[in-house]
Amino acid sequence: MGNQIKNVAIIACLKTLLFVFNIIFWLTGLLILVVGLWAEFDLYKYMELSPDFSGTAPHVIIGVAGLIVLISSIAFSCIIKGQPVLLYIYGGFLVCIFMMDAGVGASVVSYRDSFAKGLHDGLSQTISTYDPNKANFDFAQSKLHCCGVSNYTDWMRLSPQRVIPISCCLDTNRCVTANYNDVYQRGCYEVITEYLTNNMNILIGVAIGTAVLPLVGALLSCSLARYIEKSKYDVIN
Fold first, then answer.
1. What is the Cα–Cα distance from 186 to 157, expressed in whole angstroms?
2. Distance between CA 74 and CA 236 in Å, rounded?
3. In the chain, which residues have pLDDT < 50?
4. Distance (Å, rounded) from C-alpha 155 to C-alpha 128?
5. Is the dihedral of CA 49, 52, 54, 59 positive or negative?
6. For the segment 37-54, what is each residue's pLDDT rounded down to a tens digit?
7. What is the structure's pLDDT at 143?
8. HEC-encoded secondary structure of 169-188
9. How far apart are CA 196 and CA 129, in angstroms?
10. Which of 78, 147, 208, 221 has the fewest CB atoms within 10 Å, counting from its CB?
11. Cβ(38)–Cβ(108) under 8 Å?
12. What are the transmembrane regions (predicted)?
């Protein structure tokens, strides 16, 4: 009788902890989804200027976030029912999510290390083949307040020499690009590298933080399943 009461108390405690964990995990899934959408619609404009950028990382982040929200939503029912098989399955899904999170984090770290050289080459290529109809570089120059790769003189060193784009202007309503005091002085390579390095640290931090959570959930889920099985065995005996 003593062991049975002890098991019931432990099961109640584990259920409560797992339920609280699941709420946090569900909210984390929503947070990752927001980060993924931000990477897709904001960071993407700058990251695709590097030829090394494949464009798949934001899609993977969004996919993992969607999976987390879906699984954690279903898991509420599993926790309430307290079926060991369902809890073990949930634990297995959490381990899979941990591996996916770890993979996303590793790919972001790897991309960050090779990004700088790829970005410089990509920006230089973009300037030499500049097309006003493809707005990404113009968007980067106007949004980040920069001009050229190293500075505005990159446009004049091209062969044939090009006119500095209006996106380099400090004030587009009152700007003569031939007057170099009217254009941004900093180069886009320096500004974009600084911007992406700071924001990639956020992505890496989110990936590392969310990679630890599934392991905690898997431990709680499997422990709860084991104690439920043990409680049933003690009742039979």
1. 16
2. 30
3. 1
4. 9
5. negative
6. 876 776 666 555 555 555
7. 81
8. ECCCCCCCCCCHHHECCCCH
9. 23
10. 208
11. no
12. 12-39, 59-80, 87-109, 202-222
